[in-house]
Design goal:
By secondary structure, this protein is mainly beta. The protein is built from 2 helices and 20 strands. Helix content is about 5%, strand content about 45%.
């Protein structure tokens, strides 16, 4: 009996350019993929009617198709996080500089779509090719997730671990094939580690941080129109949320100050999440959360050990800049 073994699994990204759900030719390394879980729902509708003369379902009819998934990677680059913010501008050279800025809905959303139409779909769409390979002709199990967009994207640094990016996406279609898979070049450079990271709140470094998690939620709408198709229409962004969750050892100076001035006092501040692997500037990412507000602060009293404080911080706006070596996915755009 042949089996699909995990060492032959592969997930590659094909960016979409010009037309929604039509990929470009070049595969992109997303990072060290740890898992890709695809949730396909055919939403079968049970059919019951008078005259069938029994209590059972007479038949099932195909309902709307819903495709969601979660891609988890060890982060060698910030490709997914940058596109989750919005528009990505880049400068090439011996190293790449990427700048991501928010896009409001009063401008053309999709920079990859030519023409003058006021496209209001999510700015970045992509194709994911998920393959399980086995020896023999026609033995591969290949699913191509088309028209995928980022919904919730989370960057997490935990003490003693690699930095992870988890991207929840929704998509328009899944195509199946048993044929060949798309080749991809493994990127150079190690993933970011917890020891590369630092967090600054209101100008003060949180030097006892144990876990830092930055989440970008686009709250993407996925309509099922009455238009002759079971698939979703072009997705659209709704209210955007930024959430920074931080767990720290409860240091006297930091805990009193954050609780009194920023949680109870209600003052806003800026938060800077800095990931710096290479001081020469070839693997360095900076997230700046402006207009931040501590919306909850947990500081329980325990029977032993060092007390912990857990903060939930909501942000008003988010900007990003990084520097990468071209061998570690230089370009974030498909052009």
């Amino acid at each position: 009996m042949g089996r699909y073994i995990s060492d032959q699994n592969k997930v590659v990204i094909l960016q979409e350019s010009g037309t929604y759900a039509v990929p470009t030719a070049t595969a992109l390394w997303a990072g060290e993929v740890q898992s890709n879980a695809i949730d396909e729902s055919e939403n079968f509708l049970p059919d019951r009617f008078l005259g069938a003369s029994n209590r059972n379902v007479s038949n099932f009819v195909q309902g709307p198709t819903d495709i969601t998934g979660t891609l988890s990677v060890n982060a060698q680059n910030m490709f997914l996080m940058a596109h989750a913010i919005g528009s990505v501008y880049e400068v090439s050279g011996t190293s790449y500089s990427h700048i991501a800025t928010e896009i409001s809905t009063n401008v053309i959303q999709n920079p990859f779509t030519s023409g003058t139409g006021k496209e209001t779909s999510v700015p970045f769409s992509f194709t994911l090719e998920d393959s399980k390979q086995a020896p023999g002709t026609g033995a591969n199990f290949v699913r191509t997730i088309q028209g995928a967009v980022l919904n919730t994207t989370t960057l997490t640094a935990s003490q003693g671990e690699k930095v992870k990016v988890e991207a929840d996406y929704l998509a328009q279609n899944v195509a199946f094939s048993s044929g060949s898979t798309t080749a991809v070049t493994v990127a150079g450079g190690r993933p970011y580690l917890w020891s590369d990271c630092s967090l600054t709140l209101a100008g003060s470094t949180m030097d006892t941080a144990k876990e830092i998690s930055l989440q970008i939620n686009q709250n993407v709408g996925a309509p099922h129109y009455v238009n002759g198709s079971r698939a979703i229409g072009a997705p659209f962004p709704q209210n955007r949320d930024y959430t920074l969750n931080v767990t720290i050892d409860s240091a006297v100076e930091r805990t009193q100050w954050l609780y009194h001035e920023y949680f109870k006092g209600g003052s806003t501040f800026n938060a800077v999440f800095d990931l710096n692997h290479d001081l020469t500037g070839s693997q360095h990412a900076i997230f700046t959360l402006s207009g931040a507000q501590i919306t909850s602060m947990d500081n329980p009293s325990e029977v032993e050990g060092v007390n912990e404080a857990t903060l939930e911080i909501m942000g008003g706006s988010l900007s990003f800049q990084d520097f990468t070596n071209p061998s570690n996915v230089g370009s974030y755009n498909p052009f």
